[in-house]
Specification:
The complex is a heterodimer of chains A (315) and B (364).
Chain A (H helix, E strand, L loop, with lengths): L4 H18 L7 H8 L12 H16 L5 H11 L13 H11 L6 H4 L14 H6 L4 H15 L3 H16 L5 H10 L6 H10 L18 H14 L4 H9 L5 H16 L6 H4 L18 H15 L2
Chain B lengths: L5 H18 L2 H6 L5 H16 L24 H18 L23 H12 L8 H11 L6 H4 L8 H12 L3 H12 L3 H17 L4 H10 L6 H16 L6 H8 L10 H14 L4 H9 L8 H13 L6 H4 L18 H10 L5
The chains are: A mainly alpha (315), B mainly alpha (364).
Protein name (chain B): ADP-ribosylglycohydrolase
InterPro entries (chain B): Ribosyl_crysJ1, Ribosyl_crysJ1_sf
Keywords (chain B): Magnesium, Metal-binding
């Protein structure tokens, strides 16, 4: 199925507004968020973060290589676009990206690059998984296969499962399917006997989102937790962009990533017009503050390019 | 020069682990946990002071007006977990009848522990899950949280942010020393708190300790440990890389910079991955030909790994030479436990616990 331009734009705009809304709430508790904003509903100055910029990076892999993407292509893109800057601060990079870069600097090849560091479970792949769902609209298995190619370079185990869940769910959301079907597609894309699978089923069954939070761990970038919180927010928001994104952002933890994922799912379902106009107005070209190679790229244009690449792929 | 006495080598594994545990810089921070919380709060404030005033004089744990004894050199959390595991193992073995494994297929994959019984072994952890006075590793904390909310092994160790750490590798010393099926038992114990490399690392340590306790050479023990690590896995890659690096360096202390370069990316906030610390322990044991006084100080010179790599290194080298061959100045120091992680063990004698495990050995 060729992706709809409006849904593709809605997906990446939803991701970008979630990233931007959630950014100041990252690592805060719901109580701290309430004390500071009441309810966080307005994007603060400063824009998005790594979620948007790494998503643009992932999209560029698909527009260049399409469904033939290989782990070697991903490594080549890291070497061209990320490693030249790795001598300095990699702003916004998570443990998995930095760890994968160090593994590449050691000369390792995938999948060892994604396993050498202990952050295989990072949500760094889930945060950039949406383009794979757009590219493989209507084909969640293909979306999950493609995102795992990217993931083999930087992640392992639960981090790859988290990416697969998001990519597969976006692939189904891009068809306009109901919220429950979108969530079911995400669950189907991961092994039943996995942390991500258990957490996703818990929130899909209406469980308290607090039950998926690893409270005795100081970092919040665990994919099984972040993806489950994002799916919870998408369900609680009924698939509407505003409700899904604000629900995720106001839960705190890895709020920019959870709100970005919730926004991508909801935006794919509701299309560009479903993203509140005042939020859309806040999204400009990427600054490149995390990934200089994507500076100047606007997610709306990136979405259009993904639609073109998907159309080419289908001949 | 391996000791001729199995009991002496088991004692060597226990006290060697405690010596290594005591030798790393984190030990005194763990030991300060028995002191009043305000003393640690002030130390954190002194860290901030050093940052804000741009002075390089860094604070150390201090007593001010409190008793000073906890801050003396001595073992901390790793020795306590070895003691806890050995006591549970001895109790299970000394019991009237071994616990029965669930074998009726009533649940899809019942938890099993060879020679003891799954539920019987798990009971010790279930007791800990209900406690609020413990200070434990991130892997153990999350595993106990999982058990407390009904997430059973192996998910308790798998759905765990530090599934890869070496908490189970430390406990595996007890299985290597005192279980008739040491590797299978160490793996069964490990899945409660860990998965993947965390479990393989435990198997490697159990295999090496079991062979050394039986009088094998260091080379045979290292080979047996490596044989537990799956082809293509990170922990095998790390161990083989570390062994090569330490051999090329020509000695344990000489290998410190090479091990740092080979194993540590300095990206993450904790240095407890089994792939790293088990690699350090095996490489330094090999490079020192089993001499604790060369290997443990070298492990303690790798700051990121200094919480547990010296302890694992001490266990292997202590098992290689036996207790009698360990440095006299350390042997007594390493025996008394403080209870800084597991308060019930305050005042316990680790050597007596090793002897209890040795005493019951033939009844299993």
């Amino acid at each position: 199925m060729t992706p709809s331009r409006s849904r593709a734009r809605g997906c990446l705009l939803g991701l970008a507004v979630g990233d931007a809304l959630g950014r100041p709430a990252e690592n805060l508790t719901p109580g701290q968020i309430e004390a500071r904003w009441g309810r966080l509903t307005e994007i603060e100055p400063g824009g998005g973060t790594d979620d948007t910029e790494y998503t643009i990076f992932a999209a560029s892999l698909l527009t260049r290589h399409g469904g033939a993407l290989t782990p070697e292509d991903v490594v080549a893109a890291y070497r061209e676009q990320i490693l030249p800057y790795a001598g300095g601060p990699m702003k916004g990079a998570g443990f998995s990206e930095r760890g994968a870069v160090q593994a590449m600097r050691r000369g390792f090849a995938p999948p060892l690059t994604g396993r050498w560091h202990p952050h295989g479970w990072s949500d760094g792949l889930a945060m950039r998984a949406a383009p794979y769902g757009i590219f493989a609209t209507g084909n969640p298995a293909e979306a999950a296969r493609l995102v795992a190619v990217d993931g083999s370079v930087s992640n392992a185990g639960e981090g790859v499962h988290g990416g697969a869940a998001v990519a597969a769910a976006v692939a189904v959301a891009m068809t306009g399917a109901p919220v429950d079907e979108v969530v079911a597609a995400g669950i189907d894309a991961v092994p039943a006997d996995s942390w991500t699978g258990r957490n996703l089923r818990a929130v899909a069954d209406g469980g308290d989102p607090a039950g998926v939070i690893a409270v005795h761990y100081p970092w919040t970038d665990l994919a099984p937790e972040a993806v489950a919180l994002a799916f919870h927010a998408y369900l609680a928001g009924g698939g509407e962009v505003f409700e899904s994104v604000t629900t995720a952002a106001n839960l705190g933890r890895d709020a920019d990533t959870t709100a970005a994922i919730a926004g991508a799912l909801a935006g794919a379902g509701r299309g560009e017009e479903g993203v509140p106009e005042r939020w859309r107005a806040e999204i400009g070209p990427a600054s490149g503050k995390c990934l200089p190679a994507v500076a100047g790229r606007h997610v709306r244009d990136v979405a259009d390019e993904l639609v073109q690449a998907a159309s080419r792929e289908r001949g | 020069m391996p000791s001729g006495d199995r009991a002496d080598r088991v004692r060597g594994a226990f006290i060697g682990l405690a010596i290594g545990d005591a030798a790393g810089w984190p030990a005194v921070r763990h030991r300060s946990l028995v002191m009043a919380p305000w003393s640690r709060r002030l130390r954190r404030e002194l860290d901030v002071f050093a940052e804000e005033h741009q002075v390089t004089t860094l604070p150390v744990p201090f007593a001010l007006n409190l008793p000073v004894e906890p801050l003396a050199v001595g073992p901390s959390d790793d020795a306590e977990w070895l003691a806890w595991t050995a006591l549970r193992l001895a109790e299970a073995r000394d019991g009237a009848a071994p616990g029965r494994e669930a074998d009726d297929g009533g649940s899809p994959a019942p938890y099993r522990m060879p020679g003891i019984g799954g539920e019987r072994w798990l009971a010790g952890y279930r007791d800990l899950a209900g406690r609020d006075d413990l200070r434990v590793r991130i892997s153990v904390r999350n595993a106990l949280d999982n058990l407390g909310r009904g997430v059973e092994p192996p998910a308790s160790g798998h759905d765990n942010p530090h599934f890869f750490d070496d908490a189970a590798a430390v406990r595996a010393v007890a299985f290597g020393a005192g279980h008739t099926d040491p590797v299978a038992a160490a793996r069964a114990d490990a899945v409660i708190t860990n998965a993947e490399d965390g479990v393989h690392g435990a198997a490697a340590i159990a295999a090496a300790v079991a062979l050394l306790a039986g009088g094998a050479t260091v080379g045979e023990a290292v080979d047996a440990a490596v044989a537990e690590l799956p082809e293509g896995g990170v922990i095998r890659h790390a161990v083989l890389t570390a062994l090569d690096a330490a051999r090329a360096a020509g000695g344990a202390f000489a290998a410190v910079p090479a091990l740092d370069a080979a194993l540590d990316d300095h990206v993450y906030s904790y240095g407890v991955s089994a792939a790293q610390t088990v690699a350090v322990a095996l490489a330094l044991t090999d490079a020192s030909r089993g001499r604790l006084a060369e290997a443990v100080p070298a492990a303690a010179c790798l700051p990121a790994f200094a919480d547990s790599a010296p302890a694992l290194t001490g266990a292997l080298t202590g098992a290689a030479t036996g207790y009698a061959a360990l440095p006299e100045g350390w042997r007594e120091t390493a025996r008394p436990l403080l209870g800084c992680g597991l308060p019930d063990l305050a005042g316990a004698d680790l050597l007596a616990i090793a002897d209890r495990l040795i005493g019951g050995e033939r009844s299993c």
